[in-house]
Amino acid sequence: VQLQASGGGLVQAGGSLRLSCAVSGLTFGNSAIAWFRQAPGKEREGIACIVSDNDDTVYSDSVKGRFTVSRDFANNTVYLQMNSLEPEDTAVYYCNARNAWGNYWGQGTQVTVSS
Question: Which is nearest to 6 in space by CA: 91, 94, 86, 114?
Answer without folding.
Answer: 94
